[in-house]
Design brief:
It is found in: Cytoplasm. This protein is of the alpha+beta class. The protein is 40% helix and 22% strand.
């Protein structure tokens, strides 16, 4: 049976959400980001025309497009809209993978017998726009790589089908940058060799590719030929990461507990970033000396930033610790995970804060996860 994999991507998601609240932003250059020292979290196509891009410093973006309207952004609002879109799609498909806050894969294999996969995908997109007001693009093909590339080529509000027989002709003229796993370094490497299109890449011998980029050479060769067996992984809010600490002696030392919580959050947030997860739900668990156990949780905007998560964890601890009784165990859990690049709370953080996180993660990657951290996390 031929696979039918659709990729859906909400068009300029943050900007589109703001335009739902303020129709005056329609057809205007819009930048979502945080202040003069912050960076661009998202921007409209009108702003992109002037060269504005995500992660660009706001000051640079405004030099390129002085007329742009800068909006701080509301991650909680965007997260809620993302959940709404997810619910609409999830009701209509057998297998859904939520790849990020604004990106989805659908496995519609076998549904041609009943609906016609392209027609069915069109109806799902219509339902999303009708129920949320958000524009969304999609592409349908036989695998995740081709459908994702197709969505990028069809934007904005595009609807594209790339049939199996036409996959190579579709891919050949495109830049190798369109292949999801090709980053700036890989692109520059191949560009120096004169390899800039997928067609040229597909004609290279596999062993040569492996010599250039290691074991990823074979994967890259397959993708250049439109081959990708990666399954659509069913979305579930039950995915989680967590950690607990049972004390050698029950304690009522709140400063010590807050320090332990800080260390836990930093450890889990680092894991989120390494595995490219964002979390939308935080839980704090305590067990008293009499073994009574209580848990508090809250829904939060998608993030993997230590300082943002720690704020919620400490607030939850205040709410869950209601008795003047010694504590035996403390735990933190992050759930409601979706894959995505670390948002870094781009609406609030400065370039310096983002640089700090990147530097700390680099040090941890090289010397171990305990090599650097907040002082509060070491006060045990």
């Amino acid at each position: 049976m031929e696979r039918a994999i659709a990729h859906m991507d909400l068009d300029t998601f943050f900007v589109s959400c703001e335009r739902l609240k303020n129709s005056g932003l329609e057809k205007q250059p819009v930048i979502i980001g945080g202040g003069d020292r912050g960076v661009v979290a998202s921007c409209s196509y009108e702003a992109r025309y002037f060269g504005v891009r995500s992660a660009m410093p706001i000051k640079m973006a405004l030099r390129l497009c002085p007329e742009a309207k800068v909006i701080k952004g509301d991650m909680e609002y965007y997260s809620n809209m993302s959940h709404l879109v997810t619910e609409v799609i999830q009701e209509k498909v057998p297998v859904l993978e939520k790849a990020s806050i604004d990106e989805f894969y659908l496995d519609l294999s076998g549904m041609d017998k009943f609906f016609g996969c392209f027609q069915w995908t069109n109806e799902i997109v219509d339902a999303v726009t009708k129920n949320t007001g958000l524009p969304i693009s999609f592409a349908l093909s036989t695998n995740k790589t081709v459908s994702k590339i197709g969505t990028g080529e069809s934007k904005p509000t595009g609807r594209l089908e790339v049939k199996e027989a036409n996959i190579q002709n579709f891919l050949n003229p495109l830049s190798i940058k369109k292949i999801p796993m090709v980053g700036p370094e890989t692109f520059n490497l191949f560009s120096r060799l004169g390899v800039k299109t997928i067609k040229t890449l597909s004609e290279m011998p596999v062993d040569v590719l492996n010599q250039l980029v290691g074991k990823n050479g074979t994967v890259l060769w397959k993708k250049s030929h439109g081959i990708d067996e990666t399954p659509v992984i069913p979305y579930s809010e039950r995915k989680s990461i967590s950690t607990e600490d049972t004390f050698a002696q029950d304690t009522i030392d709140i400063l010590k507990i807050r320090s332990i919580l800080s260390g836990m959050v930093e450890k889990l947030a680092y894991q989120l970033r390494q595995e490219k997860w964002l979390t939308s739900t935080v839980s704090v668990k305590i067990r008293y000396s009499n073994f009574d156990t209580e848990i508090k949780q809250c829904r939060i905007p998608y993030t993997s930033a230590d300082h943002t998560l720690l704020k919620y964890v400490l607030e939850l601890f205040k709410k869950v610790y209601t008795r003047r009784m010694r504590i035996r165990l403390i735990g933190v859990r992050f759930t409601g995970l979706v894959h995505g690049l670390h948002q870094m709370d781009l609406f609030e953080d400065t370039e310096e804060m983002i640089s700090l996180y990147q530097t700390m993660d680099h040090i941890k990657n090289r010397f171990g996860s305990l090599s650097v951290g907040r002082a509060s996390g070491f006060l045990k």
